[in-house]
């Protein structure tokens, strides 16, 4: 389902307006901290069942555990980590970042943070069902939770304060609509993580926005050679495919190489930015990138949790705080290339 807080089309907003709005968000967060003269209320929930747990501390520096489903060294999640750690330095918050792509292991990381009595929890939910119990136990233990990136539809149900990220259906629609505007007629949407609900939502959204024929292709991001081989096989077998949507910047570079190798007419767009995608945009090898500005997915939750502890603020009004989508094309990529290089976009 689409979020009830559907934004304007990202192509209809100027980059200047986006920059001003981003600045206002961070300025408001900083202003809110100045209002906090004493420690405000934390979670009011009772303790959970099971092994004894440390109670979240309301004194001294706030301690926040960030637990994501990213893999070590992944360019996307490194930017999320950079955002969380930057907020921690600026706001005197102790940030502890951990990640694991296996849902069961991610749940264990959440359980460990709860047992240690952290003062706040930030969790990405690519597989919400696997994390439900762990997140609800955190809430029952009085630990405020903010979800990020994936799982926006389950966030409130699990008891989180808010969700920070992009609505994947809306982002997919934006990508599909842009392909349609460019005259494409058959789209291949490449899913690289089995069981990741957000990726299916992106492809479903692309189907809605595109209007033409859309088919999906399952690949394994942990096997880059196979990714390239499967995309090459798909465009070679079906010459009518003229658009390929990657859901990850690493997959995008493989898609470009696959298309080149068989002289296909298909053109690539992708979700997310990294230095390779920036170079491909500049060279005209990638049409556009759907940027969800994941630095904000690390930075904003840490600031929100600090505001919640010190001033009882809850952001979002019961709806997700959207960080994207922001479509980046060749004519505007130079403006943000330096930020990608330094790890903040």
From TrEMBL:
Family: Belongs to the bacterial solute-binding protein 2 family.
Subcellular location: Cell envelope
Protein name: Simple sugar transport system substrate-binding protein
PANTHER family associated with the record: ABC TRANSPORTER PERIPLASMIC-BINDING PROTEIN YPHF, D-XYLOSE-BINDING PERIPLASMIC PROTEIN
Any one cellular-component term (Gene Ontology): outer membrane-bounded periplasmic space
Keywords from the UniProt entry: Signal, Sugar transport, Transport
Classification of source organism: Bacteria, Bacillati, Actinomycetota, Actinomycetes, Pseudonocardiales
Main location: other
CDD domains: PBP1_ABC_sugar_binding-like (cd06312)
Gene Ontology molecular function: carbohydrate binding
Domain of life per record: Bacteria
Domain Periplasmic binding protein: 65-306
Span of the signal peptide: 1-36
């Amino acid at each position: 389902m689409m979020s009830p807080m559907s934004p304007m089309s990202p192509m209809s907003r100027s980059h200047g307006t986006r920059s001003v709005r981003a600045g206002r968000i961070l300025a408001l967060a900083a202003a809110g901290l100045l209002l906090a003269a004493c420690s405000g209320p934390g979670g009011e929930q009772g303790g959970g069942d099971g092994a004894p747990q440390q109670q979240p501390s309301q004194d001294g520096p706030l301690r926040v555990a960030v637990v994501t489903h990213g893999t070590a060294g992944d360019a996307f999640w490194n930017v999320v980590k950079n955002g969380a750690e930057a907020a921690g330095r600026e706001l005197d918050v102790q940030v502890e970042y951990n990640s694991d792509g296996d849902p069961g292991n991610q749940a264990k990381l959440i359980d460990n943070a709860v047992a240690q009595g952290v003062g706040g929890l930030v969790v990405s939910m690519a597989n919400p069902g696997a994390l439900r119990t762990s997140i609800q136990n955190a809430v029952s233990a009085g630990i405020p939770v903010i979800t990020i990136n994936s799982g926006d539809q389950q966030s409130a149900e699990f008891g989180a304060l808010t969700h920070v990220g992009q609505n994947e259906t809306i982002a997919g629609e934006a990508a599909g609509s842009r392909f349609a505007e460019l005259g494409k007629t058959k789209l291949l949407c490449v899913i690289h993580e089995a069981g990741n609900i957000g990726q299916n939502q992106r492809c479903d959204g692309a189907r809605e926005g595109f209007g033409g024929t859309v088919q999906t292709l399952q690949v394994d991001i942990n096997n880059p050679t196979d990714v390239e081989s499967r995309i090459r096989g798909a465009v070679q077998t079906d010459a009518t495919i003229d658009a390929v949507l990657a859901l990850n910047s690493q997959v995008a570079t493989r898609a470009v190489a696959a298309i080149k190798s068989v002289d296909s007419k298909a053109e690539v767009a992708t979700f997310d930015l990294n230095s390779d995608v920036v170079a491909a945009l500049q060279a005209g090898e990638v049409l556009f990138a759907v940027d969800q500005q994941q630095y904000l997915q690390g930075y904003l939750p840490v600031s929100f949790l600090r505001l919640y502890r010190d001033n009882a603020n809850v952001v979002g009004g019961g709806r997700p705080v959207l960080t994207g989508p922001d479509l980046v094309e060749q004519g505007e990529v130079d403006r943000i290339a330096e930020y990608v290089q330094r790890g903040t976009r």
